[in-house]
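Hi everyone,

Forwarding the result from last night's run.
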Amino acid sequence: MITIIDIGTGNLLSISNMLTKLKVKSTITHNIEDIENAEKIILPGVGSFDNAMNRLTMNNLIPVLSRRVMIDKVPILGICLGIQLFSKKSEEGNLTGLGWIDAETVRFNFNGNRNMKIPHMGWNTVKVINRESLFKGMNGEIRFYFVHSYYLRCNDERDILSTTTYGFEFVSSIHRDNIYGTQFHPEKSHKFGMQLLKNFAENV
């Protein structure tokens, strides 16, 4: 069973439907008791950093999530805004992030190059550093779907699981211990997205 955290800012049904195709049971919730009993967690998100942090605070989810992730070591996957919430802070807002990863969330800056559009939107390849985790079983050119204006700048290179080039090379996924995150949307990424979610469900 995978617990999908509902903070009103994610593609919840898209994730749930893909897990159903994989025959993986999931539940969508913001109930503290459900999180207390979670075997694995997905934190999705679309929207602004501060709005998401405010919703986590209003639902009193930060203490239980931090305990389950940082102490109980429950595997968690952050998707898009979800991975950004793992960082210490974001240029998008003023609130402090969860701080589970030594990183900051920064906005794309192309120094006035009008050929580079923000947000970064569409399919792009990823350069995988470690294929024995979320990317296990993927061969050839690996492509995922992106929609984002911000990305993680990691202070510890050991946390970087993959990079992608859009104007310059940026972090597109991370892994530290039981914490995983993707800047792209596996739930919108067809066969590679299905394989990634299957790996999270079965192999981590």
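The longest strand covers residues 168-176.

Cheers,
N.
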